[in-house]
Specification:
Helix content is about 50%, strand content about 15%. The chain has helices at about 15-25, 40-45, 65-70, 75-85, 95-105, 110-120, and strands at about 5-10, 60-65, 125-130. A 3-stranded parallel sheet has the order 1-2-3, with helices on one face. The radius of gyration is 15 Å and the shape is globular.
Length: about 130
């Protein structure tokens, strides 16, 4: 049997609220929350904690996906990357600058694009736009 989980896109207004929604959906039975991190999201989707117990099949329904794509789109991604540029002690600013340049030229990935790519890397998860 396929486990169904639902992301409510209307709850997503920025990156922190995206992770709040991810925690609502995936971490409800845990006593801790996932950090606001793409790496953490990827780790979560491998399963073993939260709503995914292993490589079980998951049907992930994303309501109002178009709104989430807009919310986590160009402007949000630009701000996200610019914030990283302020932390050369933590991030490779050369790579971040290249990502920002690609985004500005219209060929780079938005935060939303990256999230979709991460989900797609998990073949046990079927993503359904609703």
């Amino acid at each position: 049997m396929v486990k169904a989980l639902t992301i409510i896109g209307a709850n997503i207004h920025d990156i922190p609220s995206f992770y709040a929604e991810i925690n609502r959906v995936f971490m409800a039975d845990e006593d801790w929350n996932l950090a606001n991190s793409l790496d953490a999201l990827n780790d979560l989707l491998y399963g073993g904690y939260g709503a995914i117990k292993g490589r079980e099949p998951i049907r992930l329904v994303w309501q109002d996906m178009a709104n989430s794509a807009s919310t986590l789109g160009m402007e949000t991604t630009r701000d996200f990357l610019r914030e990283k540029l302020q932390r050369p002690d933590v991030f490779n600013i050369g790579v971040i600058a290249q990502q920002l340049d690609a985004l500005e030229r219209g060929v780079g990935q938005t935060y939303f694009d990256i999230v979709l790519e991460i989900i797609a890397d998990h073949p046990n998860i079927e993503l359904v736009a609703a």
